[in-house]
């Protein structure tokens, strides 16, 4: 029996996902309203099953209404946000919330009717309708909170941690559905005296459903290759519009903030996100380090061999920099033959060591048309000593870069080396 229920659990998840994704995928032909209406229609069934319909699985007692249908709905809302925008996704959430308020209001009024029996043996149970109304209202309130939370967590993981799509979907869903399970069970226990086995069995089932839906959604997004939707002209009035504006703006910035020659982020992108990264680093109590990398004698390459040869050196230097970075490091073309590298969470000493690896890699891997190696000079600065603004780090690193140039080029200069140079000059004076 338990094994049969487990098979049906997966079948229900697959049927729900396939049907709803088909409606969503065809939205430009049949209209987004079909998808949104289907979400709304399913809400009563979800709540009804969560209140009275339970099955036993190997890991506990659960309701498919809560574990599969509600989990699937939340993932559909996140998928709608990914494929459209936050302005579209608010429609089903606000609609469900308003509809369930109306359900509760009408149930309160209906209870004052004097009813008659028309169908033999059937008596209307208004107390159950009233109970369902309050459960639906509570469930929709939770859904409103859940939808905001899953979108914000999904975005946060993508921007600050740059997490791939599958773990972003799974982690976002797992966190929010854990909160939802405890919140919905509390009211279910008060109204229906649901036992603790429902809490834990339902939670395990929701985590399993999240695993299934995250996997299916990742596969669908990989196959669909969805293109971006143009920016809406709606005013920024609430959190959904804020998300929509930011999503579209950062998408535009992502496409326009690239250096055409090297493919790296350009200076405008550095100025946009560098200070934000530093502020986050300061708040978290961590260190962010910065390198300024400059190709030595680059002008002579252009003069002697032409600008095409110089462009090739810049492209291969950029590629070498990217290959030498950690996954979270950011590389920018600052201008001309200068590059800037931001290393979040990397100490000054470790950044100097990383810069030395880069210097050696460039010297070993890149050659000029005449066969001589290309070299770089690098200046390093860190937020724990050189300042917590982008301009202060750039100024400190740029000063150390020129110290490296004065020292003979093809070298790395960090804080300790530059301070030693200052002491030497002072002693000589």
Give structural notes.
The termini are far apart. The chain has 16 helices and seven strands. The protein is an alpha+beta fold and 429 residues long.
What's the topology here?
Elements: H1 2-25, H2 27-30, H3 32-52, E1 55-57, E2 60-62, H4 64-83, H5 86-110, H6 126-160, H7 165-192, H8 196-224, H9 239-256, H10 267-284, E3 288-295, H11 298-305, H12 307-323, E4 330-335, E5 338-344, H13 348-365, E6 376-382, H14 383-386, H15 390-406, E7 412-413, H16 415-428
Parallel strand pairs: 6-7
Antiparallel strand pairs: 1-2, 3-5, 3-6, 4-5
The stretches of 5 or more residues where confidence is low (pLDDT under 50) are: 226-237, 420-429
Order of helices and strands: HHHEEHHHHHHHEHHEEHEHHEH
The major beta sheet can be summarized as: 5 strands, mixed
Q: Tell how many strands the DSSP assignment holds.
A: 7
Q: Give the overall pLDDT as a whole number.
A: 81
Query: Helicity level, as a percent range?
Result: 55-70%
Give the N-terminus to C-terminus distance in angstroms.
Answer: 90 Å
What portion of the residues fall into strands of 2 or more residues?
Answer: 5-15%
Structural class: alpha+beta
User: So what's the oligomer here?
Assistant: single chain
Reading side by side through the largest sheet, how are the strands ordered?
4-5-3-6-7
* Rg (C-alpha, Å): 29 Å
So how many helices?
Answer: 16
Shape call: elongated
């Amino acid at each position: 029996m338990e094994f049969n229920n487990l098979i049906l659990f997966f079948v229900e998840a697959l049927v729900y996902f396939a049907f709803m994704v088909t409606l969503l995928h065809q939205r430009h032909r049949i209209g987004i309203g079909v998808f949104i209406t289907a979400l709304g229609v399913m809400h009563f069934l979800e709540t009804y099953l969560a209140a009275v319909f339970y099955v036993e699985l190997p890991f506990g007692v659960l309701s498919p209404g809560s574990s599969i249908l509600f989990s699937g709905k939340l993932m559909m809302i996140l998928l709608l946000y990914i494929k459209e925008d936050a302005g579209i996704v608010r429609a089903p959430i606000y609609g469900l919330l308003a509809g369930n308020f109306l359900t509760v209001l009408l149930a309160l009024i209906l209870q004052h009717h004097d009813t008659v029996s028309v169908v033999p043996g059937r008596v209307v149970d208004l107390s159950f309708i009233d109970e369902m109304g309050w459960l639906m209202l509570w469930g929709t309130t939770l859904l409103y909170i859940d939808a905001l939370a899953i979108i914000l967590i999904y975005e946060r993981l993508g921007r600050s941690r740059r997490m791939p799509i599958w773990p972003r979907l799974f982690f976002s869903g797992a966190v929010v559905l854990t909160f939802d399970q405890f919140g919905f069970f509390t009211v279910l226990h008060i109204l229906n005296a649901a036992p603790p086995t429902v809490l834990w069995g339902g939670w395990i089932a929701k985590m399993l459903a999240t695993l299934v839906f995250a996997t299916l959604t990742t596969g669908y997004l990989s196959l669909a290759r969805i293109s971006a939707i143009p920016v809406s002209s709606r005013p920024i009035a609430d959190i959904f519009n804020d998300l929509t504006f930011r999503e579209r703006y950062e998408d535009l910035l992502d496409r326009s903030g690239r250096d055409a020659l090297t493919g790296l982020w350009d200076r405008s992108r550095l100025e946009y996100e560098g200070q934000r990264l530093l502020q986050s680093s300061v708040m978290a109590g961590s260190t962010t380090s910065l390198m300024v990398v400059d190709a030595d004698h680059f002008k002579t390459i252009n003069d002697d061999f032409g600008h095409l040869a110089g462009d090739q050196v810049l492209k291969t230097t950029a590629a070498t920099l990217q290959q030498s970075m950690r996954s979270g490091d950011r590389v920018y073309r600052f201008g001309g033959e200068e590059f800037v590298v931001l290393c979040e969470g990397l100490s000054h000493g470790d950044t100097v060591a990383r810069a030395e690896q880069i210097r050696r890699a460039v010297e070993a891997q890149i050659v000029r048309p005449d066969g001589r190696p290309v070299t770089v000079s690098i200046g390093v600065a860190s937020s724990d000593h050189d300042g917590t603004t982008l301009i202060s780090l750039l100024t400190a690193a740029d000063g150390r870069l020129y110290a490296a140039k004065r020292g003979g080029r093809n070298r790395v200069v960090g804080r300790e080396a530059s301070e030693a140079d200052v002491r030497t000059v002072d002693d000589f004076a």
